[in-house]
Specification:
It contains 4 helices and 9 strands. By secondary structure, it is of the alpha+beta class. Belongs to the SmpB family.
């Protein structure tokens, strides 16, 4: 990895973790990009890809958004300075976005969940969060049936 003129090599965003379960459990209404306030050992663990977004959600308290229940594994070389693995982490959003999210959650009863965590071009950890509403069991079955028919259609067209 050679550096030219003291610049880091150019790279695009790199996905660290995705929440595949969220797309199955919820209808996604809107998505937002948020920064995350992390400690030193947390960002090292995130860059190693040791993140689990499965049970995560976003809580809005006192005009601030917090990422709850997201598991970031402890950094092996972190010794006594290591972090708590599931601590609440502050999300960095614009005030307008926070107000809009808070109003949608309180008025419509929707939820905010993390969809994916990634490292952007500048090397910063970002999380893509979504405003979602829950799917009923029959909605999930309809989604699965639709996916199966599309798969069958593609298979039939491929044979011809």
């Amino acid at each position: 990895m050679s550096k030219k003129n003291n610049q880091a090599p150019a790279r695009g965003p790199r996905t660290v973790a995705t929440n595949r379960k969220a797309r199955h459990e919820y209808f996604i209404e809107e998505t937002y990009e948020a920064g995350i306030a992390l400690t030193g050992t947390e960002i090292k663990s995130v860059r190693m890809g040791r993140v689990n977004l499965q049970d995560g959600f976003v809580l809005i308290r006192n005009g601030e958004a917090f990422l709850m229940n997201v598991h970031i594994a402890q950094y092996e070389q972190g010794n006594r300075f290591n972090h708590d693995e599931t601590r609440p982490r502050k999300l960095l959003l614009h005030k307008q976005e926070l107000r809009r999210l808070h109003s949608q959650v309180t008025q419509r009863g929707w939820t905010i969940v993390p969809l994916r965590m990634y490292i952007n071009e500048r090397g910063l950890a970002k999380v893509e969060i979504a405003l979602v509403r829950g799917k009923q069991l029959h909605d999930k079955r309809a989604t699965i049936a639709k996916r199966e028919t599309e798969r069958e259609l593609r298979r039939m067209l491929k044979n011809y």
